[in-house]
Amino acid sequence: MPDRPALAQTLDRITTDALALHRALRTSITDDAHALAAWITETQDLADTALYLFRVLAQHTPHTTSPDLLLLERVAHIAKAAQDAGAELAAALTRAVENRRRRADAVSGPVVLIGPSPQQFIESATDLLDRIPALYHAIHRDRLVPPNPPTHLPH
């Protein structure tokens, strides 16, 4: 089991990164493919870190007590929220590129764009990222970060 400081530090980093990404998505209305690709990479990094943490916890956690299982469940939900946010951003990227192509192909007349819009996918991603700090606070509120002998998580 990772020691308390390493586990807490990893959860802190995941949550801080999720909040920063959430702010970036809320303050930037864009269908810029480059920005969307960067955000997708960031959400994938969040999910990778959470999945790594889950794997370490699963290997070193006795699955016999409710707090142990609740911690695993919440870390799994953090990973899923990050993965789902990445999927929504990938959908936004796809829709933005598709709409750009439709505009370029339109010779005359109005362009018919299909929905949901890239911005709607981005809003969905921000809603998913909102779950990460809530799960983080629930882990700390319920004191699920256990004190154990030191073994450190790599950074």
Provide keyphrases for this structure:
elongated, single chain, 4 helices, mainly alpha, 155 residues
Explain what the structure shows:
- With 155 residues, the chain is mainly alpha-helical.
- The protein has four helices and no strands.
- It starts with a helix and ends in a 14-residue tail after the last helix.
- The model is unreliable at 148-152 (pLDDT under 50).
Give a topology summary.
Blueprint: H1 4-27, H2 33-60, H3 66-105, H4 118-141
Give a count of the beta strands, DSSP E runs of length 2 or more.
0
Percent of residues in helices: over 70%
The coarse overall form would be: elongated
Annotation field: number of helices: 4
How much is the radius of gyration in Å? 19 Å
Overall pLDDT, averaged?
86
Give the end-to-end Cα distance, rounded to a whole number of Å. Answer: 16 Å
Strand content bin? under 5%
* Helix-strand category: mainly alpha
- Topology order in helix (H) and strand (E) letters: HHHH
Low-confidence stretches: 148-152
- Major sheet: size, sense and barrel closure? none
